[in-house]
Amino acid sequence: MHFLYEMEELVPIVAALSEKYTSKESTSVSYETARQLMEAVMYCINECSSDQALVSSKKLSAVEAYRYGYEALVEKVKQTQINYNQMIVDFCGYGNRNYEETVEKAIPGFFLYYDVQFAPQETIITMDYPTICPVSEKSGIDAIETYVKYISYEQKFMGAFPRQYVYEVLERDRTDHKNGFENICRVILRNVLGHLLIRKGFLEEASGQDYEKLCAIVTSSSDHQLREVLEGLLEQLIHEKYDDDLGMKNYFACDIADLVVEMKNAAENDVMTGFPMMR
To answer: Distance (Å, rounded) from C-alpha 114 to C-alpha 91?
Structure first.
């Protein structure tokens, strides 16, 4: 938080919010409710504090910061719902039940029950489908906004390939892509990067010689070198196929470190042919 407010500055805001919560029918609320409302006030103030232009322009009172933050959250909910509605039009879960249920049912449930006034800090849904970059450090609409953005990146990424190709890669993967709780886009990303690494077309199935070539590249490269190469291939891919979408590149770059570790382990244990990246 950029501005630190004393408790005596926050209590009047919580009191006013409590009156709205009880519709002025009661002068007191339970301890749990008071704590919830205090968290709501702090969440709004934090939202205001994230506005750098506003922060640098003037020092706001706690009441002003709360009001600006609340209004910003209302707009964020509206924009996130717009983004979701645009994404869901062409959404494809590629047969993964968890992916489909989370995106098609859970996220709309959030918008239906989210209380931006009295509980903006509550995320409501569990977001069972894991994104490549976690959103666990965020809550409320901040978490959902990021989650929708990440899902949109994945849809854009997989949507650029023939749908049958995505299905085939997932079918050949060692995980249960229909009933599993894994991120399916990671499988496609690794398949694509693996093909780029050995300069092979995306739609071509890897041969034994391809795996030998891949293993040789991985073995002869240090962790740092391999990471740099994969990051370069990802950047090239985003440039050529996705109009240099920086947010998209940063999202998928979150997987590179884990990919390097897994590739190294596969090569060292001579199980590269069982590695899902090229199948």
So the answer is: 23
